[in-house]
Amino acid sequence: GGVVDVIIDGKTGYTVPPKDALALAGKIIYVRDHYEEASALALKGHAYAVENFAWGPAISRLLKVYSGERV
Known about the structure:
elongated
């Protein structure tokens, strides 16, 4: 669980390799220089999180599991 479940690199956010300060710095600079693209990505990320991880969808999936349906 965690970031890898929420962020789809380049679609709902950006990821960088763990413990790679240069990659993180590069991505921060990229976001700073591409504000509109980053803002659009942030909106997509929020929508993805709400759609997939809010209580409503989670409960719906859980009820399907309990009723024997494939999720």
